[in-house]
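Researcher: Next entry in the queue.
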Amino acid sequence: MLKLTNSRWFRLLQWFFSLSGACFLVLTQSNCLPVKDPREKLEELRVLGVKAEPPAAKPGDKVTLSALTANPENAATTLSWYLCASPEAASDGCPDTDGAQSLGTGTSVSLTVPTDYLNVELTPAEKQNGRYLVVTLVAKTDQETVVSTKRVVVSQTPNNKNPSIVDLKLFDTDGTTTLSPPWSLKLESNYKLEATVSPESRDTYPRTDLQGNTQDAKERLYLSWYLTEGSYEKGYLSKADDLTNVLQTPKEAPNKDITLYLILRDGRGGVDWKTFQAKLP
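Model: Structure for this entry, 281 residues:
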């Protein structure tokens, strides 16, 4: 069976999400299918984000993992978590491999970083940036399975925290008037969206260039946008530090609620998310 990761677009998407420690593989019982366009519209089981708190830890630290999933069919979903035996499992996950340790089931689980996790011969990159601790999440219904991996950075001097979404503003069709929630929207209309994040969301960290020079750098923030009805003018992935988009409501879908999913990533493993509700006439 051909894996979805063989497609060009998925490799690009997998690379982007690997910046924040999450890679996604969508499977069905009978075959492997790419996500339909527009990709921001949720029509099947998806794992939209996996958060580690904290995203970077020391040996012996407790880490809490949580997941944001979307299941438009409202089918019963089981979430199973596994701790992988080595960092090499980051690409494909480890639920069916020897040495994987079950962490339990549910939307959130916790683990303790092994105290000897850094007592190995580290690569030059691991010495500088830390060693990855890889966790696999398997989301499963009767018809679909989604496998997602999360990388937690382990070092003696962890230097990252999760960013934070403060709010999402929605402007009326005139583009200037802010609407108050709960939002009641018109069909076939455009609404400007503007997210706000906490000032502490952009961490400063040491970055080494190709010539070996190290200097302080500021994180860039990336937003992912998803919804259950309609589309987004800018698509589902924002450019760095672009906190705006335009919601395009559908021509038809009366008497339906729209759930908007907003996921914030800092490019180094930090994640946050919020969901918002809107109604159509």
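Model: The helical segments are 8-18, 124-129.
Researcher: Noted, moving on.
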